[in-house]
Amino acid sequence: MTDTIHENLRIPTGGAELEADIHVPPRALGVVLFAHGSGSSRLSPRNIFVAEQLQQAGLATVLVDLLTPTEEQIDRRTPKLRFDIPMLAARLVALTEWITQHDSTAEKPTGLFGASTGAGGALIAAAARPVLVSTVVSRGGRPDLASDFLYLVRQPVLLVVGQHDGPVIELNRRAREKLRGEARLEIVPGATHLFEEPGTLEQVAMLARHWFVDQMQTEEPHLSTR
Q1: Whole-model pTM?
Q2: Would you say 196 and 188 are in contact if contact means Cβ atoms under 8 Å apart?
Q3: SS3 140
Q4: Residue of 41 and 24 predicted with greater confidence
Q5: From start to end of the chain, where are the E strands?
Q6: What is the mean pLDDT of residues 58-68?
Q7: Taking residues 155-173, what's their average pLDDT?
Q8: Which of 64, 112, 141, 208 could form a disulfide bond with 122, CB atoms 3.0-4.6 angstroms apart?
Q9: pLDDT given at position 106
Q10: By the 8 A CB rule, do 153 and 180 touch?
């Protein structure tokens, strides 16, 4: 029986090397790349929790820092890099391409899980790489930051928002109307933007887990030669 693979790597993305934690269970059904929100990192406890739930369902996960340590220091003083959505999206595109060629994650359907502002970058990456990206899940996301790229997203998209995150609910409703593929909006009862209320993050993880498994079971694997 194949053992679970754990890797901590620096992934080149064209001008920057980004630190990533990779977890690949035996016979992984697919791989999910996490795009954290503004001011966060691959060590986000919320994303780690969701990633662990996905791993239990047989999905590989890639948690990555979208900024380098030097950039993070700059961003603490002038928080503009975290909102540079085109730059973050370009890095997600490069990461997606790397995942589809890396030994432990190649030839598997690839999904993106975007949180907060990271969802905007994830949707742009999905529009830019329609063959490589199978599906997208957004947690408390800002899909509006993908702007006109929303019209180019034809992959299935799950939008998860907290019941008490009013303005973001409306942004997600508007974004859903622009998406060209299957798009579902799930509102988690009693939850605010960060899903800190008891049981709410568990609901996010359950929704994401079912969504990714359902989508990837019907997806043809991507060849690493693409």
Answers
A1: 0.92
A2: no
A3: coil
A4: 24
A5: 5-12, 17-24, 31-35, 60-64, 110-115, 133-139, 157-162, 183-188
A6: 94
A7: 96
A8: 112
A9: 92
A10: yes
